[in-house]
Amino acid sequence: MHWPVMKCLFFRKWFALLLLAVVGLVAWPITTIHAREPVRLIFDTDMGNDIDDALALAMIHILSDRGECELLAVTITKDNRYSAPFVDIVNTFYGRKNVPVGVVRNGMTPKDSAYTREPVLASDNGRPRYPHALRDGADATEAVALLRRVLAKQPDGSVVMTQVGFSTNYARLLDSKPDDASPLDGKELVRKKARLLSIMAGGFSEQLVAKRYKEYNVKIDVQTCQKLATEWPTPVVWSGYEIGQAILFAAQCIENDFGWVKHHPIREAYGLYMKMPYSRQTWDLTAVLYGVRPDHGYFDLSAPGRVIVEQDGFTKFEPDPDGKHRYLKVNAEQIIRVKTTQEVLCSTPPRRK
Questions:
Q1: Among 33, 77, 117, 120, which residue has the fewest nearby CB atoms (within 10 Å)?
Q2: Degrees (nearest 5) of the Cα angle 193, 194, 199?
Q3: Beta strands at 127-128 and 123-124: parallel, antiparallel or unpaired
Q4: Where in the sequence is the domain holding 188, given as residue range(s)?
């Protein structure tokens, strides 16, 4: 081909590519641009009752390493002395020992966990296996006081609050009175500072509804979940039992992908929780993943409505175009994407180690 013709075609080709790039930038969704800013995240957990809480916290730290979220605080609804020290171990391991930890007082499930005590007490050659400052939950700040203090310091409408345990702390937050942290009562403080609650609770599939299934996080503290469902002032997205039940964290990932360090608190806790090898449901991880990455297409959302929590712990969803509640839905393709994403994130070494 003659050189002037080739040169003309060459520049036409690159001009077309440049035009496509410009159009793409103009059409880039606003929500995606906003997602580049770190999500201000509070993680409320019943750490110790199931291993997915620990996996979810590990995932939060790697998302923080990637600049996708900022972990403002961890609050705990399991009233056991080793839950807070274990959280402190994980935070310290991932390079965030200064993340504040708050604990429930007079809360639920005080019995020891299968996996929190041993890592907290473990030592090698007379030194703690996992460095941590908190030695006992009694030494941690009360959860509602911590939540009020942290929320009051955040920009308006900026905080994503995740809840993957009981509703105890957040319900008490709604009832809290003005204090030195804020002149607002709890409900108004949440309304002003939070923008979303992403919660693992309930069950919304046709099969679970037909069986009147009572999900664990709800039935353990029904009254507080009822309060949250009726009074929480921001949009709420519920990750029902059926979502995490369908997405398993592979035993092979634990066995093969966490070996970059001799002692890993998540791998050790996973082995303590049940006899290896086993693959575990990822209930809590799904609520966190949606809270941080709502626009990645991992899940679909129901139509708007409201969740009703009945006296026995059964949850049902009533469609309402003006409702603030939605629940997650997931298809076969999304299950594969979410499973892979969660395993990769959880097994990634921390940058700040």
A1: 33
A2: 160
A3: antiparallel
A4: 39-347
Task: Evaluate whether residue 141 is within a structural domain.
Answer: yes
Note whether 252 and 270 are within 8 A (CB): no
108 bridge partner residues: 78
Report the number of distinct structural domains present in the chain.
1
Helix then strand then coil, % of the chain, to nearest 5: 45, 20, 35
User: Which pair of structure tokens corresponds to residue 129?
Assistant: 């296996």
Q: Does the bond joining 349 to the residue before it have cis omega, within 30 degrees of 0?
A: no
What are the beta bridge partners of residue 317? Answer: 307
Does residue 26 lie within any of the structural domains?
A: no
Please check whether residue 293 lies inside any domain of the structure: yes
Residue 7 backbone zone (phi > 0: left; psi -120 to 50: alpha; other: beta):
alpha
pTM of the model: 0.89
> Is residue 38 a contact partner of residue 61, using CB atoms and an 8 Å limit?
no
Mean pLDDT of residues grouped by 10 in the chain (353 residues)?
39 37 33 65 98 98 98 98 98 97 98 98 96 96 98 98 98 98 98 98 98 98 98 98 98 97 98 98 98 98 98 98 98 98 98 67
Q: In this structure, what token pair is assigned to residue 117?
A: 């005590």
Residue 120 lies in a domain: yes
